[in-house]
């Protein structure tokens, strides 16, 4: 039987039981039309989880306390009264022996609170817009028939003109035929939708730079138009029909269109098969949702909001002969995607893809051999629909091993000297999420030297908008005829709950500086001196920091209760990323007010169980981040020295689109890495064997002798390990 873990996601049965209880309670309150936006695990307190699992809380805790008391298992739901729009949070507790839960509470949320938008709402809103008579008329004016109308429904950012009702915005496109590239035919208006009432509230037209007598001059203001006014008239320009050239990305459609024009086209036929095999099976083991691999041990959770959650992450130390804790919980906590075009309604484009949609809800069912290649283990997820009933997402997490190139090597260059080469392998825990036009591949990576990281690949299709012939586009790139892609950013926030050798941790900032003494001086005669500094960040306001490449600034999460025997530094893990980007908006902008976490690269605050989401629990349609969010927590100037802390790291991509990103985007990459720093006694991968791939052969007619049989002066190609 699979081992139980307090962070195991809710089962389908638990979701059904919890939803039934909540619906019964809401009926008692007179609410008959109810929409369930999410039902998920309410994680138990950190201290209870640690005690139940018997995880060390101090570097000298060699026989950690194991309580044997299973933490209470609870479910939380976000509910909407479809008549009034009121929002409720409901919580229940399941009995230890299983069965029907008991109600803990139902709390009505403050007016204006909005849970994450659901997949059903996104689908419903597309149909609302497609069937709206005014939308049909406007599309007809530029040659788009009703059956060609396609709509991407999005979160609306902040929209001040309609009060506190639940809203979405719709981007309108033309699709010329089945599966044809709709983003190649954007229309020149945007739609505001009342989500609960299922109706169009407003159609907005952006101003353009189309007057040949005033090149580059905008036809109207960048400010929003009034609700009562004529937005098209206020835009000060003529209608812009969508361009009609096909710009497909699906190979069969490209080939058919080329053939129609009398041109030859085919996929590449010179690419030889590359197969990944593990004839002896994989090197990891699963026990329920807990995985062990190459000295790593952790739990893999999944929820509708963050998707993959790694928790109780530990690493076996061969010198100490025990598992040492590293992180209590790791998650992709939030992201914001602000676009740079200032003409309304474009400023509404800055979605919180975690808090406003839920990455878990957007996760793909992954396909063997293409999304994940090799020997793959999959995990399913149980989420919920509007009725609160379970929905099974198959194969949303793929787990596999990958070759990672060279781990370490040295050749003694002296005559008769030995060479030794060790290849690296990494464990991948991955999900791929489709958020409207974009795809994000989130891959947690564990390596054999104790390094852990998160790699994000961005692909999919650019969000597009129309442009008139010869129109200047200072805030975007013309990726195709009549198609512009606005400049934008993808700003990611990763939440890290460190538990480096115990609960009480500190955050340190390390920099490298040149010696001040001038060249020729007694202190620095050759002028080459540089040294490093490390200082502890002691309060939450002091720990709001930005990267500085000029000083090679980085941060180290450490435990001051244990010092490395040689370096003298606290045992720790350092944070590394080449993707710390600045947020490119004004400090008082809507984006900065709603997503203040994106203004800085590192934040550290005291830990509490409810400090999970940097933009707040319910960021949908907020005017500004609530006080109970990251910027508010940091402003309290609390102690973060030698205590239980939680950190948020902000990294990402500034995307000025290229024509080569069109019609579908080759992946762009961003990532963050956590690397041991004075944590282990020495290189923890010395015991990784030097493997020789018996199936490697010479290429291009160089012979078919397996590399394992190749000899060089009596030694194998990898150095001839004695073991």
From TrEMBL:
The active site is at 353 (proton acceptor), 438 (schiff-base intermediate with substrate). InterPro entries: Cu_Am_Ox_Cu-bd, Cu_Am_ox_TPQ-bd, Cu_amine_oxidase, Cu_amine_oxidase_C, Cu_amine_oxidase_C_sf, Cu_amine_oxidase_N-reg, Cu_amine_oxidase_N3. Transmembrane segments: none annotated. The modification 2',4',5'-topaquinone is found at residue 438. GO terms for molecular function: copper ion binding; primary methylamine oxidase activity; quinone binding. GO terms for biological process: amine metabolic process. Residues 115-206 form the Copper amine oxidase N3-terminal domain. Residues 275-686 form the Copper amine oxidase catalytic domain. Belongs to the copper/topaquinone oxidase family. Homodimer. This is Amine oxidase. It comes from Rhodotorula diobovata. The lineage of its organism: Eukaryota, Fungi, Dikarya, Basidiomycota, Pucciniomycotina.
């Amino acid at each position: 039987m699979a081992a139980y873990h307090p962070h195991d996601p809710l089962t389908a049965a638990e979701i059904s039981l919890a939803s039934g209880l909540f619906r019964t309670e809401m009926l008692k309150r007179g609410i008959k039309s109810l929409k369930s936006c999410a039902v998920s695990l309410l994680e138990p307190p950190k201290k209870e989880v640690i005690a139940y699992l018997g995880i060390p809380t101090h570097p000298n805790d060699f026989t950690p306390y194991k309580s044997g008391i299973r933490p209470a298992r609870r479910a939380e739901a976000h509910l909407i009264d479809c008549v009034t729009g009121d929002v409720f949070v409901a919580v229940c507790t399941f009995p230890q022996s299983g069965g029907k839960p008991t109600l803990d509470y139902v709390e009505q949320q403050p007016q204006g609170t909005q849970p994450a938008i659901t997949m059903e709402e996104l689908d419903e809103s597309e149909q609302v817009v497609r069937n709206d008579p005014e939308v049909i008329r406007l599309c007809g004016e530029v040659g788009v028939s009703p059956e060609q109308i396609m709509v991407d429904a999005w979160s609306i950012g902040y929209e001040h003109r309609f009060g506190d009702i639940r809203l979405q915005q719709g981007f309108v496109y033309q699709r010329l035929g089945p599966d044809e590239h709709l983003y190649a035919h954007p229309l020149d208006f945007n739609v505001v939708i009342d989500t609960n009432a299922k109706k169009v509230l407003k159609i907005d037209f952006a101003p353009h730079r189309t007057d040949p007598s005033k090149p580059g001059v905008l036809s109207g203001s960048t400010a929003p138009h009034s609700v009562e006014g004529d937005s098209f008239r206020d835009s000060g320009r003529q209608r812009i029909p969508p361009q009609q050239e096909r710009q497909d990305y699906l190979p069969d459609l490209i080939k058919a269109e080329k053939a129609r024009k009398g041109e030859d086209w085919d996929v590449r036929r010179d690419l030889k098969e590359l197969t990944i095999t593990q004839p002896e099976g994989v090197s990891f083991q699963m026990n329920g949702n807990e995985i062990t691999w190459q000295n790593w041990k952790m739990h893999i959770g999944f929820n509708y909001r963050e998707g993959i959650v790694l928790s109780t992450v530990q690493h076996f130390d061969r010198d100490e002969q025990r598992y040492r804790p590293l992180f209590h919980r790791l998650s992709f906590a939030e992201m914001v995607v602000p676009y740079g075009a200032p003409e309304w309604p474009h400023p509404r484009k800055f979605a919180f893809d975690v808090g406003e949609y839920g990455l878990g809800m957007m996760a793909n069912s992954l396909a063997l051999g293409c999304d994940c290649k090799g020997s793959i283990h999959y995990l399913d997820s149980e989420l919920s629909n509007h009725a609160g009933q379970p929905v099974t997402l198959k194969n949303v997490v793929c787990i596999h091993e990958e070759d990672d190139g060279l781990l370490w090597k040295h050749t003694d260059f002296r005559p008769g000297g030995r060479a030794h080469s060790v290849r690296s392998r990494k464990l991948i825990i991955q999900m791929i999420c489709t958020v409207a036009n974009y795809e994000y591949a989130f891959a947690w990576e564990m390596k054999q030297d104790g390094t852990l990281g998160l790699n994000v690949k961005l692909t999919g299709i650019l969000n597009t908008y129309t442009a008139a012939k010869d129109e200047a586009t200072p805030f975007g790139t013309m990726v195709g005829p009549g198609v512009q892609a606005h400049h934008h950013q993808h700003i990611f926030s990763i939440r890290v709950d460190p538990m480096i050798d115990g609960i009480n941790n500190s955050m340190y900032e390390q920099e490298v500086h040149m010696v001040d003494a001038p060249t020729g001086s007694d202190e620095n005669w050759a002028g080459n001196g540089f040294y490093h500094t490390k200082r502890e960040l002691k309060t939450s306001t002091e720990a709001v920091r930005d990267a500085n490449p000029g000083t090679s600034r980085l941060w180290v999460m450490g435990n001051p209760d244990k010092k490395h025997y040689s370096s003298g530094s606290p045992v720790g893990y350092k944070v590394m990323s080449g993707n710390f980007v600045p947020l490119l908006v004004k400090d008082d902008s809507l984006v900065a007010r709603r997503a203040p976490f994106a203004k800085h690269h590192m934040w550290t605050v005291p830990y509490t169980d409810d400090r999970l989401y940097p933009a707040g629990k319910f960021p949908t349609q907020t005017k500004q981040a609530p006080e109970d969010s990251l910027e508010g927590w940091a402003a309290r100037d609390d102690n973060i020295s030698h205590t239980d802390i939680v950190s948020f790291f902000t990294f990402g991509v500034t995307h000025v689109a290229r024509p080569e990103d069109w019609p579908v985007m080759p992946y762009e990459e961003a990532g963050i890495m956590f690397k041991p720093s004075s944590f282990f006694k020495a290189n923890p991968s010395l015991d990784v064997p030097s493997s020789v791939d018996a199936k490697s052969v010479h290429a291009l007619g160089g012979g078919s002798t397996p590399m394992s049989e190749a000899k060089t002066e009596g030694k194998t190609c990898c150095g001839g390990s004695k073991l």
